[in-house]
Amino acid sequence: MHLPHTTLVAIAAVIAATAVVSSHQTAGRQGAAQAAPKPADTEVHTPVPAVVTPGASDSAPPSDAIVLFNGKNLDEWVLTRDKSPAQWVVADGVLTVNKARGVGNIETRRSFRNYQLHIEWRIPERITGSDQGRGNSGVFLASTGPGDAGYELQILDSYNNATYVNGQAGSIYKQGIPLVNPNRKPGEWQSYEVIWTAPTFGADGSLKTPAYVTAFFNGVLIQNHFELKGETVFTGLPAYKAYDRAPIKLQSHGDPSEPISFRNIWVRELK
Ligand code: MG
User: Fold this and answer.
1) Which of 126, 136, 168, 266 could link 253 by a cystine bridge, Cβ 3.0 to 4.6 Å?
2) How far is the CA of 67 from the centre of ligand 1 (A)?
3) Rounded CA gap, 237 and 241, in Å?
4) CA of 137 to the centre of ligand 1 (A)
5) Cβ distance 112 to 269 under 8 Å?
6) pLDDT digits (tens, 9 = 90+) for 26-37
């Protein structure tokens, strides 16, 4: 039998249409067989976050914090140079740097890996000096040796005081310029809220993962998951040096300007 071309086209169209209808029916039956998604499908019930009682204010330690300075004593601190009792000055609930010769930096008795740190500091109202010589101190987020060895979050009077920008207050010294400058004027209390993710190392001492820091300065974000290139150094390029846990260190800088003060220092260890 010979069918005209138009008839063949029409038959082909009918067959194609039938196939489409059939495949839609199959898909519909399969969809009906599966349970319709419900909100509860994506609700998770474990692990339950631990209950933490926050401080009365955001300056006060929450219930799971280790208080490093409570305004009364330096029981949690030692001199970096020989681990003897810290000889900085505690008065009126405030800790002040001792710039006397031979005293130097202090660091925590305890060692830490990853943590959240809260610390407040104050530049003297009548600060003198300029550039790096005006209220210079620092928080070493990990003290990996004597002197200034480690990773320094810079403290300086950067209210109206020009210096190199990777050395101003809130910088990761000579590595990370702060995103903005939220300094308060000398005489006013200022705060750092720091999240420190320690570097990790292989058994042979090689770097596995770098250190990261996120920091708020007076509540303003200044370092956003900043990746460090190694320890902060005064001269030369940063490099990593393997460590596991390390103290937190405060700097007694050698410049002749008036010593700065600290209060409300606490830390929460993180996994
Ligand atoms: Mg410093």
Assistant:
1) 136
2) 23
3) 13
4) 4
5) yes
6) 444 555 568 899
Residue 5, Ramachandran bin (φ over 0: left; ψ between -120 and 50: alpha; else beta): alpha
For residue 165, the CA-to-ligand 1 centroid distance in Å is: 13
What is the structure's pLDDT at 33? 61
The CA 134 to ligand 1 mean position distance, Å, reads 10
Distance, CA 27 to ligand 1 centroid (Å)? 68
pTM confidence score: 0.87
Please tell me the distance between residue 112's alpha carbon and the centre of ligand 1 in angstroms: 21
CA of 235 to the centre of ligand 1 (A): 13
- Partnered with residue 269 across adjacent β-strands are 115
- Sequence length of the chain is 271
Residue 154 Cα, ligand 1 centroid: separation in angstroms?
5
Give the pair of three-digit tokens for residue 184. 């308060």
Q: How far is the CA of 155 from the centre of ligand 1 (A)?
A: 6
Please report the beta strands in the chain, taking only residues with DSSP state E, as ranges in sequence order.
66-69, 77-79, 89-91, 94-96, 106-108, 114-122, 137-143, 150-155, 189-197, 200-201, 207-209, 212-217, 220-227, 249-250, 261-270
Q: Which residues contact 228 (CB under 8 A, 6 or more apart)?
A: 151, 172, 175, 176, 199, 210, 211, 212, 213, 238
**What separation in Å is there between the alpha carbon of 142 and the centre of ligand 1?**
14
What pLDDT score does 34 carry?
80
